[in-house]
Design a protein that fits this description.
- With 93 residues, this protein is of the alpha+beta class.
- The chain is built from three helices and two strands, in the order αααββ.
- The chain has a two-stranded antiparallel sheet with strand order 1-2.
- Strand 1 and strand 2 form a beta hairpin.
- Helix 1 (9-22) crosses helix 3 (46-58) and helix 2 packs across helix 3 (46-58).
- The longest helix is centred in the N-terminal third of the chain and has 14 residues, at 9-22.
- It is globular and about 40 Å long.
Length: 93
């Protein structure tokens, strides 16, 4: 992630918080103001979106969608060397 953008500790904390919210599939952004705000930031702020995407990638997760009502939709990425890993459908836990 060499974007030329200097991320602050607060930016990275916010990115991690958004990924954490996405790992809780029963949470809805409309019910959790901080989640809603971070999701809006993800959708509008390119450098923040890059940080969230990189964080998800570093956790071996595919970020499928950032939906206004459903929230951040994450899927476990393929495990190294596993031909069937992409078929797995479990939460972040």
């Amino acid at each position: 992630m060499n974007t030329g953008y200097a991320y602050s500790a607060a930016d990275l904390t916010d990115a991690a918080s958004l990924v954490s919210f996405g790992c809780q599939p029963r949470l809805r952004p409309l019910a959790v103001p901080r989640y809603r705000d971070l999701l809006q930031r993800y959708r509008r702020d390119g450098p923040f979106r890059d940080a969230v995407d990189a964080m998800a990638e570093g956790l071996n997760m595919d970020l499928i969608e950032a939906h206004e009502a459903e929230g951040l939709v994450l899927h476990p990425g393929p495990a190294p060397g596993s031909p069937t890993a992409s078929r797995t459908t479990r939460s972040c836990r």
